[in-house]
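In this section we walk through a basic example: taking a raw amino acid sequence and producing a predicted 3D structure, encoded as discrete structure tokens. The instruction is simple. Fold the sequence below.
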Amino acid sequence: MQDACMLLRKKAEGSNSADNKTKGVTRPKVNTVDIIDEDVYESIKKEADIQGMSFRKYANEQLEMIVEKERFMRKYMPKISKLAFDEGILFIKDKEDNTEVARIGLSKEGLVHCTLCKSETCVHVMYALAMPEIGRLEHLKDKK
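The resulting token sequence is shown next.
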């Protein structure tokens, strides 16, 4: 998988912009993202160190994987979409079942569980496993 900076470098090499040239060296146009939460920044930095990568390379690879995953999910699971994530429960809409919403959370045993299918292996659980919210799931609570 190519680093996003490498892709930017290739694009920059093809351009003749004087703004990108300093002393005959072509530099890529770099877009940046603000990481507002200090804890998130530190977590990314720690993971980059564990992987033996620079912060920039690790962050670019993670962003690239997220975009690729989203494309994959739209292509292979087009009838399923995330409605909301609230109070540790992921709400998923399945367009094949227009009447109900799947609630995904953790069972009492700590397994990812779907209330619609009453299963730990259904398509809704598989979809949920690809969502970034997966680490924030909580035990399902009966609301009566």
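Looking at the output, two observations stand out. Strands lie at 21-22, 25-26, 80-86, 89-94, 101-106, 112-114. Residues 15-20 have pLDDT under 50 and may be disordered. In the next section we compare this with other chains.
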